Amino acid sequence: MSDTTERTATAFANPNIAFIKYWGNRDHELRIPASGSISMNLAGLETRTRVRFDSNLSADTLTLNGQPAAEAARARVARLLDRVREMAGTRARAEVVSANNFPTAAGIASSASAYAALALAASAAAGLALDEPALSRLARTGSGSACRSVPGGFVEWQAGTTHEDSYAFSIAPPDHWHLVDCVAVVSTRHKTTGSTHGHALAPTSPLQAARLEDAPRRLDICRQAILERDFEAFAEVVELDSNLMHAVMMTSSPRLLYWLPATLAVMRAVERWRAEGLSACYTIDAGPNVHVICLHEHHPEIVHRLKAIPGVEQVLTATPGGAARLLDEPAASNNPRSLQNLPGQYLRS
Ligand code: DP6
Questions:
Q1: What is residue 321's three-state secondary structure?
Q2: Torsion-angle region of 19 (φ positive above 0: left; ψ -120 to 50: alpha; else: beta)
Q3: CA distance 85 to 67
Q4: pLDDT < 70 positions in the chain
């Protein structure tokens, strides 16, 4: 790309929920994980990001949900833009405008959809046509879990040991299995310890080595259960994997205890419901909210029951989502300071 051109691209990505979790890095800088992971993209929850490279800009700027972003967030985005500039051979700075259609405070990991959409929009705006593995690698350097929001449906991130071999790919399309993620929101307070810091603490837990040693077995069981749509096997390994990650969190130094009383209430209820014959299981990320994964036919009942649990503030639902993709630029897209080109629902939060 020549430094005198001005180019814009807009991309869209879903966040994802991990069934086999990423927690701990082999390489922090490049976000090469200590083990592989498996996830599902979440349709209905979306990030849209527009990137405009302009040689007249003196610095990269970032607008998030209509507000100028904090310096730490801007600097993290600028690091990914540096990679894109290096690949494209340009020095032009960029204006980045990004918005989510889901409340940031709901505890859905927005960094996954944010960096998947950013990688795609930035590389396209810089004139690069990256293939899916290359895009997944680029997104990974911004946020590890973002590499899994690049391909569609049910996705595996092969850990690898280098930048080249650490990327995600689809293991089944979205319509392969009609699962629903019912997110029981028990707190909308911002978490005290973010994932990036948490990954660095993982090796301080005496349990992390055992968790990593057993990871290939859990990945095999989960992959197979998804491919065979075997909910019983899936439920057991998903809950085991979530509990193992939280055991590591709780025993790291300093310890991380994300659960609230309502978190545990939901976990116990889901166990009971499964024993009664409902196909549902729980998984929890770095926060107190509980993702209850269930078969589509059981989801109205699950949502109804979740809402009745004291401490559950709201329940969001999502079905398997597709790959990150570029959006056509509307004709009126050349007012970079406004969010007018993003649909209204993106401006709410
Ligand atoms: C608990 O991808 O958010 O959600 O690379 O530092 O941005 P960074 O970490 P991030 O970690 C995700 C942690 C998790 C588990 C998972 O999604 O696999």
A1: coil
A2: alpha
A3: 25
A4: 1-5, 105-107, 190-192, 329-349
Locate all alpha helices (DSSP H) within 101-155, ordered by sequence: 110-125, 132-142
Ligand 1 in reach of 238 Cβ (< 6 A):
no
- Whether omega for the bond prior to residue 254 falls within 30 degrees of 0, making it cis, is yes
- The two most distant CA atoms of the chain are separated, in Å, by 65
3-state secondary structure of 265: helix
Mutate to test the pocket of ligand 1, among 14, 20, 22 (most ligand atoms within 8 A of CB): 22
CB 147 within 8 A of CB 157: yes
Distance set, CA 239 to CA 77, 127, 153, 204 (Å): 33, 43, 20, 23
Q: Report CA-CA distances (Å) from 285 to 258, 259, 323.
A: 9, 10, 22
pLDDT (0 to 100) of residue 348? 32
Let me know: does 240 contact 214? Beta carbons within 8 Å: no
Identify whether the C-beta of residue 102 lies closer than 8 Å to the C-beta of residue 108.
yes
CATH architecture classification, 7-340: 2-Layer Sandwich (3.30)
What pLDDT was estimated at residue 336?
Answer: 38
Rounded Cα gap, residues 22 and 195, in angstroms: 10
Distance 192 CA to ligand 1 centre (A): 15
Question: What is the value of pTM for the model shown?
Answer: 0.93
Residue nearest to atom 4 of ligand 1 (CA): 285
CA of 135 to the centre of ligand 1 (A): 18
Instruction: For residue 97, give the nearest of 10, 25, 169, 6 by alpha carbon.
Output: 10
